[in-house]
Amino acid sequence: MTSEIDQTVVLSAQKLNVFYGEFNAVKDVDIDINQNSITALIGPSGCGKSTFLRCLNRMNDLIVGASVQGKIMFEGVDLYGGEIDATEIRSRIGMVFQKPNPFPKTIYQNIAWGLKVNGFKGNYDEAVERALNQAALWDEVKDRLNNSAFTLSGGQQQRLCIARALAVEPAVLLMDEPASALDPIATLAIEELIKQLKDHVTIVIVTHNMQQAARVSDETAFFMVGENRSGYLVEHDDTQKIFSNPSNTRTEEYITGRFS
Q1: So what's the pLDDT on residue 26?
Q2: Ranges of each domain in the chain
Q3: How far is CA 175 from CA 18, 23, 208, in A?
Q4: CA 79, CA 89: separation in Å to the nearest integer?
Q5: Phi and psi of 172, rounded to 5°?
Q6: Is 16:28 a contact under the CB 8 Å cutoff?
Q7: Most buried residue, 124, 186, 205, 206, by CB count within 10 Å?
Q8: Cα 52 to the chain's mean position, in Å?
């Protein structure tokens, strides 16, 4: 047991299988996600990283023909249990997508909307300011909160989407390649933000960028495509170990660019 790092498990996938119709897209995944950690999901295209990520807050429920077998435990509760409200889960486990997707509303309304939907009874001004501060955006937008969100740059829009997710104080934040549509400067800003946020929230991030995974994450999970094109988890360990001394030769081949 490590004394320096909090190893409390906040999410646990157990024998997780995801199907799109007959197709077994993700097969037999077992993984624990530790609280206040950043876990990067890496692997080639089509290996099930994003599919797995969407399972963690039941976003796959919204895809016609998708079904899930196995368990995902969150704070001791099976997310796929019959009594679970998927909408409530998505406020506790937020999501940030590949491309910034602000609402066609003002900057302020983008943050306040999620609070209102979740029945927030507190001070909206304070909550909006807190979320924008957490997303390192407040100083840039505090004098134009009533402007359209679309007046922001791409990087600012992505930070606004992160602030929107943070406003309802989730326990976990899922990120599906959150910087892939951004320029290098905006990408670095998002990476710095991700590292700062783990004091407040557990983060799981999908990335195709090996350097990004090495820079921002505490742990890394490597997925691969197996038989019948099913994605599966090859290896999950501390990021430093994955990138310097992986246990599986396929992990090493992928990270060093010798993967075929």
Answers
A1: 97
A2: 9-255
A3: 19, 25, 12
A4: 8
A5: -135, 145
A6: yes
A7: 205
A8: 10
Which tokens belong to 159? 């930070």
Average pLDDT over residues 21-25: 95
Residue type, 5: I
Q: Rounded to an integer, what distance in angstroms lies between the CA atom of residue 52 and that of residue 68?
A: 10
- Residue type for 64, please? V
- Name the one residue in this structure whose structure tokens are 């704070």: 75
68 C-beta neighbours (distance < 10 Å), count: 19
**Cβ(206)–Cβ(50) below 8 Å:** yes
Q: Is the pLDDT of residue 136 over 50?
A: yes
Which two three-digit tokens encode residue 167? 């406003």
H helical segments located in 56-145 = 86-92, 107-117, 124-134, 138-141
Question: If you write DSSP's letter for every residue of 4-67 in order, what string do you get?
Answer: SS---EEEEEEEEEEEETTEEEEEEEEEEEETT-EEEEE-STTSSHHHHHHHTTTGGGGSTTEE
Residue with tokens 């955006």, as numbered in its chain: 137
Distance CA 115, CA 108 (A): 11
What is the spatial distance between Cα 252 and Cα 260, in angstroms, rounded to a whole number? Answer: 12
Structural tokens at position 136: 């390192």
87 falls in which pLDDT band (50, 70, 90)?
Answer: confident
Q: Are strands 9-20 and 66-74 parallel, antiparallel or unpaired?
A: antiparallel
Record the tokens describing residue 93, joined without a space. Answer: 């486990």
- Taking residue 126's Cβ as centre, other Cβ atoms within 10 Å add up to 9
Residue 6: per-residue pLDDT = 47
CATH homologous superfamily of 9-255 equals: P-loop containing nucleotide triphosphate hydrolases (3.40.50.300)
